[in-house]
Design goal:
Keywords: Transferase. This protein has 166 residues and is of the alpha+beta class. It contains four helices and nine strands.
């Protein structure tokens, strides 16, 4: 398996992969391919990686800028993260996450934030922090990973592409 940056020629395969990965998932409304498309269209897909196996895309991860009402800058939101159902539980999602986090650090990011299962994302160092929030998201599912000592405060502002706007 190889992890690499998404290329323009991957867009159709990524769309199909993300659709398959989230189909019937209990925490999905099916909007994940549209979110990625809107992030791309708005120029807000800061980093996108694919996992490729046997010349087929089997995983994808998206990173986009986020803001905080407290003014913190250079933070990135993670998601959607998708792995082909036939390739799940084989370390592909973890490899995408670790590769993306390293690239963000190399580019000077201060940290990352996501909405997800703390049982899964704690392995990467993500944790809930009382000083941050996002309307409608339970505190235990809003997870943050600072790359430095500075901790942001306030409400997290994910890109409007997550909410059907461009």
């Amino acid at each position: 398996m190889k992890i690499r940056r998404e290329q323009f020629s991957d867009v159709r395969a990524v769309d199909a992969l993300v659709r398959r990965a989230f189909y019937g998932h209990p925490h999905s409304d099916g909007s994940e391919p549209d979110i990625i498309r809107r992030l791309r269209g708005a120029g807000a897909l800061s980093l996108a990686l694919v996992a490729e196996k046997d010349d087929r895309i089997v995983g994808h991860i998206a990173f986009s800028p986020v803001g905080f009402s407290g003014g913190a800058r250079d933070w990135y939101g993670i998601g959607p993260v998708a792995v082909d159902p036939d390739h799940q539980n084989k370390g592909i999602g973890s490899a995408l996450m670790l590769g993306g986090l390293e690239l963000l650090k190399d580019d000077g990011a201060r940290g990352a934030v996501l909405v997800g299962d703390p049982g899964f994302y704690h392995r990467f160092g993500f944790r809930a922090e009382p000083g941050i929030s996002h309307k409608g998201v339970p505190a235990e599912n809003l997870l943050i990973l600072p790359f430095e000592d500075e901790m942001p405060e306030g409400e997290v502002a994910f890109h409007r592409a997550f909410f059907g706007e461009v």
